[in-house]
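= Protein in question =
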Amino acid sequence: MRLRPSLVMALAAGLSPLGVYAEDGYKVEPLREAPPEALAAAVKATLNPEGYRVQNGKGKPLVDLWLRKAVAATGKPAGPKGTVFLPFLAEGELLGALRFPSEGHDFRDQPIAAGVYTLRYGLQPVNGDHLGASQYRDFALLLEAAKDTSLQPVSPKKVEEQSAEAAGSSHPAVLMLLPAPPEAKSEPSMVHDETKDTWGAVVPLVLSIKGESSTARFPIQVVVVGVAMN
């Protein structure tokens, strides 16, 4: 299988001043840079002032990522619900933003032009088209930053349509989301799935839980290298 820098991002609690190298040299590390000016001002204001950068073994940036200061959650994480491991998130919820310094690829190996995109939460449709792609249906969809200015969840249909525009195809531009492995540490790290030959980056997703006065950090994984095998 040909590997592409899609985006495996694993979100785990905490932040370290140093990146953690994967076996083959992929690494994720804090990016001390404000979110891009290409984002709508309202969207930019909801993001953390610093982000993360995933690089290959030669130090070439593959993708830059900024997460929201807090993502609305309907309840506390309590394990997967069937094939959905983030059942407390609303479809179309804004998760953050990313930047491809050069042409990138999504989990379907679709080429994505260099530039800035928002990330919104979505679920694979249950229609048999994605069998075997993942144990879970959770994905992040990329939308062109200039066309995505709302802080409210966007309907699944509109998200899919706008994400397909970002990919310049009939299929949304998607990044697979997975649980962080039990052994995941509290600092950014890379995770390798040897069976599917994918790599993910581990970084914290901060949740604003309904009815709770304080936020909570939840470990999650977004996939940056590798493509669907089906």
